[in-house]
Design goal:
By secondary structure, the chain is mostly helical. The protein has 6 helices and no strands. The protein is about 90% helix and about 0% strand.
Length: about 160
C-alpha cells in the first residue's frame, strides 16, 4: 500500500526536477526568441510575397498580430506543464539528471547562451531556401488543383452515365 504513495511522491520530485531542467535550458527565453525570429522571418517575406509599399503597413500589422497570437497561445506558461509531461514520459531519472548536469556545466551554459544566435542563423538559412521553395510549392498546389478538378469532373461524368 505504501509503494504507490512513494511513487506519487517520486513523480512530484521528477516533475520538479524536469521543470528545473527546462529552466536550466532557458526554455522560456528560447521560446520568446523563436517568436521574435518568426516575426522577423514573416516581415522578410514581404518581397517574396510581392507586397507593395502601399501594402507594407497592412502586412506589418498582420505579422505583429500573428506573432502576438502565437506568443499568447503558445506561451511558456501554457507550454511548461505539457513539456514537463513529455520529458517525464520519455526520459529516465538518470537521463534527466545527466541533462541537468550538462546544462549546469560550462559547455551546457555556453550552449544555452549561444542557442538564440544559432537558431537565428538557422532561421536565416531556412528563409533563404524559402525563396526557391515557395514558387515550387505554388506550382505543386496548382498542379494538384488541376488534377483534383479533372478527377472530380470525370467522377461526376461517370456517375451521370
Amino acid at each position: 500500500m505504501l509503494a504507490p504513495l512513494a511513487q506519487a511522491g517520486d513523480e512530484g520530485a521528477r516533475r520538479a526536477q524536469v521543470e528545473q531542467l527546462l529552466l536550466g535550458m532557458n526554455m522560456d527565453a528560447t521560446l520568446n526568441s523563436v517568436y521574435g525570429q518568426m516575426e522577423q522571418m514573416l516581415l522578410n517575406m514581404q518581397q517574396q510575397l510581392k507586397i507593395s509599399e502601399e501594402e507594407k503597413p497592412l502586412f506589418e500589422e498582420f505579422a505583429h498580430k500573428y506573432t502576438k497570437v502565437m506568443r499568447e497561445e503558445l506561451s511558456w506558461d501554457k507550454m511548461k506543464q505539457p513539456l514537463i509531461e513529455i520529458y517525464v514520459k520519455h526520459y529516465t531519472d538518470k537521463e534527466i539528471a545527466d541533462m541537468a548536469a550538462f546544462y549546469a556545466s560550462d559547455s551546457g551554459r555556453s550552449m544555452v547562451a549561444k542557442m538564440p544566435q544559432v537558431m537565428q542563423e538557422s532561421m536565416q538559412v531556412s528563409q533563404s531556401l524559402m525563396g526557391s521553395l515557395l514558387p515550387r510549392m505554388t506550382e505543386l498546389q496548382k498542379e494538384f488543383d488541376a488534377k483534383l478538378k479533372a478527377a472530380r469532373a470525370a467522377h461526376q461524368e461517370h456517375e451521370a452515365h
